[in-house]
Amino acid sequence: MKPRCNKPYEVGFAEQLNSLIYYHLENHDSGRHHLQVLEENAFARKHVAPKKGMKKSTFFELNNSRGLEQMSYMFKELQIEASEAILPQYEHLGNLVAVDGSLLDAVLSMSWADYCKTSNKARVHLGFDLNKGIPYKIHLTNGKSGERPFVEKTLSPGQTGVLDRGYQSHKRFDRWQGKGIHFVCRLRNGTLKTVVEQYEPPKESIVFYDALALLGKPHQNLSEKPVRVVGYKVLGTIYWVATDRLDLSAEDIAFIYKLRWDIEKFFKWWKRHLNVYHIMFRSRHGLLIQLLAGLITYLLLVIYCQEQYGERVSIKRFREIRNKIHNEAIEAGGPPDFFRQHSGP
């Protein structure tokens, strides 16, 4: 993206990225608050802001029009680096990726974020690596956009998508099996099951049902290929789960679906502690930049916690890192490792 005048841009991508990482780490409550800190805070002015400062017009035009390709590249590279740094927790269960969507409130002037007559919302579609506990892929749409099409945009053959019942689609179950995309998907209560082969559930187990079955009603939504259906009960709630994984026990299938809650916990942590709830940029480009920067910040935290402590990210370590960034700058007089090692493409 070229500048709108003959004057070249004075802010590079490394400065753009560092500025947004700092925003997410410090929980500034608005873009203007962030810019004020970049101008008035000695640490931010020395180690984060561009040498000539960052004007409001430059900041918003920069993030609404530039850096998306580089930000996407950084996210992909850091996702690979974080994945290599973490030992898988459930390797015997395969490559597990939870797929889910989350709504973000948008202002009415964001016409692209269509949701309903009285409000606008954007929808984040996220793939989350359950073995490593890290974000895997991201897509951004308006709030009305359906979630099911993003399963195939997120997963690769051989991976197992872990999905809530909103993703139930018998035609897609057929298609995913044809493409080699595995799935563990909760079924809606009352889904009709035509048993093809019945299996004996394990004794003294939460599992009470295990069968190969066709789903749906004939001449309406009947699946062409049978799927394995596992029924189990936890704390008084009955769960029905469909899967094509015949290589695992019924209890393994139940456990895999339980892991889906990890993506819910990630959404909650990411939004609350990295300030993703507050939308600074109103264009789709700008919001995707902000979301990618938030994911990059999380991956940097993952890598940092692994390298320094051999641990996964926690709020305790997050607070320690924020304090350490400031202390290193004061004591050493130079940029802290967190910014120096990971800035720029």
Task: Outline the structure in words.
Helices cover 42% and strands 20% of the residues. The chain has 12 helices and 9 strands. A 9-stranded mixed sheet has the order 3-2-1-4-5-9-8-7-6, sandwiched between helices. The two termini are 17 Å apart. The chain has 345 residues and is an alpha+beta fold. The N terminus is likely disordered. A hairpin with a 4-residue loop joins strand 2 and strand 3. Among the domains are: 120 residues; 95 residues, no CATH class.
Largest sheet: 9 strands, mixed
Count the beta strands.
9
How far apart the termini lie comes to 17 Å
Mean pLDDT: 90
Radius of gyration: 23 Å
- Uncertain spans: 1-7
Gross morphology: elongated
Task: Please summarize what this structure is.
With 345 residues, the chain is α+β, with helices and mostly antiparallel strands. The chain has twelve helices and nine strands.
Helix and strand layout, with pairings?
Layout lengths: L12 H14 L4 H10 L1 H6 L8 H10 L2 H18 L10 E11 L13 E10 L4 E9 L7 H5 L5 E4 L6 H10 L2 E5 L6 E6 L8 E9 L11 E8 L2 E7 L6 H10 L1 H13 L10 H26 L5 H18 L4 H4 L5
Parallel strand pairs: 1-4, 4-5
Antiparallel strand pairs: 1-2, 2-3, 5-9, 6-7, 7-8, 8-9
Helix pairs in contact: 1-10, 4-10, 5-10
Q: Which features does this protein show?
A:
alpha+beta, elongated, 345 residues, disordered N terminus, 9-stranded mixed β-sheet
